[in-house]
Each structure stands twice: as C-alpha cells, then as structure tokens.
Amino acid sequence: MIKSMTGFCKTTVQHKHLSCSIEIKSVNHRFLDAKIHLPKQFQQLEETLKKQIKGPVQRGKVDVYIQMETGVEEKERLKLDKRVWENVKGIVSDIEMDLGKTIQINLSDLLSIRNLLPYEQNDTEDVDDYLELFELAVQEGVVELTKMRQREGELLLKELMLHMSELTTLIDGISGYTAEALENQKLKLKRNLELLGAQYDENDPRIMQEIGIFMDRCDITEEIERFNSHLVQMNELLLNQEAVGRKLDFILQELNREANTLCSKSNHISITQIGVNLKSEIEKIREQIQNIE
Q1: What are 28-49's pLDDT values in tens digits?
Q2: Would 268 disulfide with which of 18, 91, 181, 226, CB 3.0-4.6 Å?
C-alpha cells in the first residue's frame, strides 16, 4: 500500500530515570533528507540516530526534534577548548604586531568562534543512557509517523483510483470514433477531387492508396495499447508495499507522451478532445503522486 510523504507525530518516551519528548515532521522531497535536532551537548549522536530513519522512511524531508524532559539542559556548561584558544591567541598576536596596536575582544566575539566554547554535560550521567533513550524515542516516533503516512496514503490511493478509472473510460471511448474518422477522410478526399473537377472511380487504386496512407498515418492502435499497458503497471505499483513515487512519475511521463501522440495523429475532433481530457487527468494524478513516497 502506498504511503504519503506528509506526516506528523509527537510523543514522550521514558528510559530508566530519563525521559524526553520527540516531535517528527515530514513533507515531500525527491530523496530522503533527514535532520535530527538534539540538545547541544548531544549533537554528536545525530548521525547514529539517522540510521534508524533510513529503513522505515525512504523518501521525504524529515525533521526530528528531541527535547529533554528532566531539565538536563540546565546541567550543561560551556567548556573552553584550549587548542582552539591557543590558535586564536596566536592569530590575535600576529594581527596586533602588524597593526601596532592592541585589539579589543569581547565575549560576543569569543562566542562566535566555532568550537572555542563547546557545550559539555556537567554531570555523571552515562552518555550511553542518553543514546539508548534517544534511539528508543526515534524508534517509537518513526512507528507513529509511518502509521500517519499510511493513513494519508490510503486517502491518496482512493483519489488516484478515481482518476485512473476516468483515464480508462476516456481511452476506451476512442474506439467509437475511429471508423467515423476514416469515413470523414474518404469524404474529404472526394470533395477535394470534385473541387478540382477530376474524374475518378471510387475503386481507383490510387484513391485506395491515398486512403491507405491516411489510415497508416493516423493509426493510433499502438498508442492505445501502450496507454492501457501503462495503466496496468500503475495499478500494480499502487498496490506495492515499496516506495513507488518515482516509478509512478516515470509512468506518468509515458502516459502523457502517448496522449500527445493521440492528439497529433488524430483527424477527428472528438478524439482530439479525448486526448486533451487525458492530459488533464494525467496532470491531476501528477499533483497527487508528488506526495507519494
């Protein structure tokens, strides 16, 4: 069953004596783009936690927000990285020598220097406990997010099936005009010959050849067969358990190509109108599948 790329969930998770809240938001995106927003002192755990998202979620822009519920933020403190500080002092000293005067540096200048004052945890808690807490939170959050994306996918599927049914009805309606299109061409050819004052026999091989050329040029049998084949493929993909959004988009391109060919080869206004309606329905489907994983 298809899944939407749009979803949201929020929950609270406890592990041992620790607890945190997790909020996950996802929207459509061409690929998987996951970001985990952690308290400053745990940002080094982001890449580890991302691995839990990449399996259940295959496409979409996913933002995960984790906040501690036990006041752990109050336990963090700034720590001076002495290696960075020595480097900064050396740079300042060089600049002062070049300028011949003292440079005034305030606290805001120091805070803006990357990695000079990193945050660290100011307690005896084991970082592994926090990692286990966050892993559990991401795991539960992704489960809830997946459920919502599946519910959204069910609604999308109903809408898509209506448009697919309309495509089938439209393409099947073309057959009712093919014989009329051929007869119209015969009459058009006769009128042109009469306007020229030409004497002719309806069974003249040259007349039949002209009609044959027209039939070959305007034959849309292959286009209809390919169109129906693509519809079958779409139906199969819509019932697939895997991420099929990009495959559906490719098939839509093929359907649109066949609809364009139908319009260009048709010599009947009703068939042309059907081609236009096909393209309209295809565009409606395209809008829907932009949100399918």
Answers
A1: 998 999 999 998 888 889 999 9
A2: 181
Cα separation of 164 and 255, whole Å?
11
Q: Which CATH architecture group holds 151-289? A: Up-down Bundle (1.20)
**C-alpha count within 13 angstroms, C-beta hemisphere, residue 69:** 14
Q: Where are the domains of the chain?
A: 7-74+126-149, 80-117, 151-289
The rounded distance, in Å, linking the Cα atoms of 43 and 237 is 39
- Is the separation of the CB atoms in 282 and 252 below 8 Å? yes
CA 55 from chain centre, in angstroms, equals: 17
Q: Which of 177, 150, 214, 171 has the alpha carbon at shortest distance from 7?
A: 150
Q: Which residues of the chain have pLDDT under 50?
A: 72-74, 122, 124
pLDDT digits (tens, 9 = 90+) for 48-76: 999 999 889 999 999 999 998 755 444 55
Distance CA 53, CA 145 (A): 11
CB neighbour list of residue 22: distance below 8 Å, 6 or more residues apart? 10, 11, 12, 13, 64, 65, 66, 137, 138, 140, 141
